[in-house]
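Design job #97: recover the sequence.
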């Protein structure tokens, strides 16, 4: 898409957001929600509130990044403590876990926003998100949460391109989903295993594997890497380093998925 077409689409997003007097944005610090929050700030100025969920299913480093982003762009931010692990329909990890999780999360965000006199809540789903199994989207629609990036037809590549033009620090940030998505359906989600996954992925990032996943099956780790990273991963020193690192975290077996990194692989 040409720069002119992208600018036209961005102006359409701003026009859509300006129809609201004020808005709360569910802000995770990812590529999409950062772009949406930036646009909301440009459209509505100080009538924007960023709401960031705090939970064991989100890496602790993300909270720090959201604080820095809001401070840089002068956006008011509130934190919503999500009690995911206390809910049976979360712990048992059924196939519709995401529905219940999103329902609880956005109900809480709506309540927090209402305390600030804000009745409109938005989230950052884009056009690419429509292709995967996402029961959480049903909960978002039931609660009347807005998805402005889908409404105005934005795809991930366009969001990254404009984010780069605007100088947003998230423009090339790897895609991320909550840590609960690393668990096979039906396997109990525990805080200890969430920590194991978070530390394993952080270790891989520190070794230079920016886009990766560590899926957990019982006490086995299944690593997903970009195809172009596999040769480097299988170098003896790197392979042994990763094996020792994950074993030290508590994994009994470590494997590599030869199909490589892909979103939603647990839905296959």
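Job complete. Output follows.
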């Amino acid at each position: 898409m040409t720069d002119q077409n992208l600018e036209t689409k961005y102006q359409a997003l701003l026009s859509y957001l300006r129809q609201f007097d004020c808005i709360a944005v569910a802000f995770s610090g990812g590529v999409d929600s950062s772009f949406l929050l930036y646009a909301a700030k440009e459209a509505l100025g100080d009538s924007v509130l960023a709401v960031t969920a705090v939970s064991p299913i989100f890496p602790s480093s993300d909270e720090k990044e959201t604080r820095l982003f809001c401070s840089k762009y002068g956006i008011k931010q509130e934190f919503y403590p999500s009690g995911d692990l206390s809910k049976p329909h979360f712990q048992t990890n059924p196939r519709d876990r995401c529905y219940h999780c999103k329902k609880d999360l956005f109900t809480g965000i709506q309540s927090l926003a209402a305390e600030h006199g804000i009745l409109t809540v938005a989230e950052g789903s884009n056009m690419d998100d429509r292709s995967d199994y996402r029961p959480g989207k049903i909960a978002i629609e039931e609660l009347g949460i807005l998805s402005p990036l889908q409404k105005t037809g934005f795809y991930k590549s366009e969001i990254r391109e404009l984010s780069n033009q605007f100088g947003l620090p998230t423009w090339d940030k790897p895609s991320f989903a909550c840590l609960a998505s690393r668990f096979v359906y039906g396997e109990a989600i525990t805080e200890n295993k969430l920590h194991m996954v978070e530390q394993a992925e952080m270790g891989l990032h520190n070794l230079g594997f920016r886009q990766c996943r560590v899926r957990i099956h019982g006490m086995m780790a299944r690593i997903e890497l970009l195809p172009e990273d596999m040769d480097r991963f299988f170098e003896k020193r790197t392979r042994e380093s990763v094996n020792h690192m994950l074993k030290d975290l508590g994994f009994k077996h470590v494997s590599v998925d030869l199909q490589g990194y892909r979103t939603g692989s647990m839905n296959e």
